[in-house]
Amino acid sequence: MSMTSKLAGFRPPLVAASALAAVAVLGGSAYASTTGTAGSGLDSPALTKAAAVSATSAPAPHVHLRLKPSSPALATCFPHAAANVRVDLTTDDVGKDTFTIRAHGLKPRTDFTVFLLEKSGAPFGAAEYIGDITTNRWGRAYNQFHLIVEEAFAFNNATHTRTDLNSIGVWFADPKDDDGCLGKNSPVTGFDGDGSAGVQMMNSGPTKLP
Known about the structure:
Elements: H1 3-8, H2 13-39, H3 45-56, E1 62-69, H4 72-77, E2 82-88, H5 91-94, E3 97-104, E4 111-117, E5 127-134, E6 141-147, E7 153-156, E8 161-164, E9 167-172, H6 179-182, E10 200-203
Antiparallel strand pairs: 1-2, 1-10, 2-3, 3-6, 4-5, 4-9, 7-8, 9-10
């Protein structure tokens, strides 16, 4: 065999490797194109279903209430005190609502208790203790509670009477914390877990929860 024939049948390793790489790239492109069309295309069943769900879903209904000082004396001591409450009404969907409270203008670094009430003002009637808020050094506080709010009620099985809890009240958790405003002889109430609290600081007034 001549030298020319031998060279004609010889392929340098670099050329062979380049050819294999080209085949691999082409094969990968074909595979990606095929799987993309079947599983993640714009007209795929999965994306079509997700788009339909997104288009039909709506935000949960909600209600807003504003809490203000419970007495003229407290309003004088804390002229900027207020709290905004938002309740996302999701009990029918997830078995509970979301109660979000943001307060400002309160006594700094102070604990307060939060209640759902039969009546916003004294004598308040039936009450449900739902949580606490604590103010920072600027008198601001935030918390979020997960519970049934829209259908909250108290039931007396002895008398078979049901009382809806459609109002909101906030109390000084420590009876000493209202002394600076009301004096050392201010009332001690039971609106805290330890049975000893100060007076009601804020309430929702005539506005009712649904």
